[in-house]
Amino acid sequence: MESFDKNNPNKAEVSWFAPLCNGDDEFIGFHDLNYKSNWKNTSDIVKKADILGYSNILCPSSYQVGQDTMTFTSAIAPLTKNINLLTAIRCGEVHPPMLGRAIATLDHILEGRLTLNIISSDLPGTSLSSELRYKRSDEVIQILKQGWTKEFINFKGEFYSIELPSDPVKTFQHNGGPLLYFGGYSPYGTDLCAKHCDVYLMWPDTINNLRTQIENLKVKANKYNRSLEFGLRIHVIVRESESQARAYAKKIISKIDIKSGDEIRNRALDSKSLGVSLQSNLRYNADDEYFVEDNLWTGIGIARSGCGAAIVGDPDQVYSKLKEYMKIGIKSFILSGYPHNKEIDYFAKYVLPRIDNISLPQILRRKPKNFPTSPLGLGKRN
After folding, report:
1. Is the peptide bond prior to 96 cis by the omega test (within 30 degrees of 0)?
2. How large is the C-alpha radius of gyration of the chain?
3. pLDDT tens across 222-242, in order?
4. Are 94 and 102 within 8 A, CB to CB?
5. How many domains does the chain have?
6. Cα 145–chain centre separation
7. Is the dihedral of CA 51, 55, 59, 60 positive or negative?
8. CA end-to-end span of the chain
9. CA–CA separation, 183 vs 205, rounded Å?
10. Is the pLDDT of residue 346 over 70?
11. 202 burial level (CB within 10 Å; 0-12, 13-18, 19+)
C-alpha cells in the first residue's frame, strides 16, 4: 500500500461517530428519550459532520435497540456530499457474494465514499472460539478481495466454497476496493489485520503502550510484505478552558454509580473481549479523577463497553494531544462525545481547523478521479 507524506505531522483523517446502537446521551448511563438512536437523531449527526468538514464517520454495528448499519448508510448516502461512511460489517452475517454485491451497490451510491470496518465478534445468539471467528473473517475478506480484483471468484475454505463471476461485486473504488479498517487485540485478530486490512484502529491507551502496539503491528504486517496505517478511536471533550472541560467530564458521569456502570457495560456483545479488558485496566490505573496521563480521562468507561477514555482539555491541550498521537504514527482519528450532536460542534470550532484533514481513500488512491468503467458505472452491460 502506498502511504502518504510521513514528513507532514499535521496530516490526519479526522472522523466522527454515528451512535446507531443506543449509545448517545447527555449523561453516561442515564437514558434520555431525546437521544434515541433513531433516524432523525443519527441522520442529523451525519449530515452535520459532512457540513462541518469531517472526513469520515463510523457507523457501528451491534445487536442493540438502534438501526441496522447497511440500511442506515444506504439511506443517508444521498443526503451527504463529501464525507466518507465507515460502515461496519460483521463477517458471517451475510453470505459473502451477497455482502459483496451490497458493498458494490453502496459504494456506487456514494461514488467511492465507502470505507469498511471489519468486525469479527460472535453473531448474536451464537458462540465461536476466537480462532474460528477470525478464520471466518479471513475467508470473507479473501472472497471480497477476489471479487474486487479478479474476473472470477474461486475460493475453497473451511466456511465457504465459492465459484462465481465477479462482475456483480465490482465496486466504484479501484486498486483493491474500499479501505478496510480493523480494531482488535487478540493474536488472531491482529494477524488478520496485518494480512488483509488497511487501517489498524486502536482504543485509548498511554502513549507508550500505543507506540508499542504500532510497532508490533508493523512487524506483523511486514511478514506479509504489507504496510498499515494506524488510527485511534477516542472520545473528546474540548472547552475554552481546561477547568470547563474537566467540569463537563465530571458532569456526564454524575448520574451513574459503579455497579450500574458494570451492568451497562456487560450488555455489549464485546464486553468479554481482550480489548474491553484492556480499557478496564487503563481505568484501574488512573488517578482519583480518572486521568491516566495528561489530558487522557478514563471516567467515560465507567458505563461504556469498548472505547473507554477521552481527551479532555482546552483547545491547545486537545490539539497537542492529537499531535502527540500523530508523531507516533497515528493518521486517523475517530472521535465522539456526549451528546454527539453537540460535542461535534465544539471540536469543529476549536480544533478541527488546525488539522490538515485528509481523506484516506483519496490519499491511498482507492477513489478514482473519473467515473469508473465498473459494471454499475460506465462499463459495458453484459
Report:
1. no
2. 20
3. 999 999 999 999 999 999 999
4. yes
5. 1
6. 20
7. negative
8. 32
9. 14
10. yes
11. buried
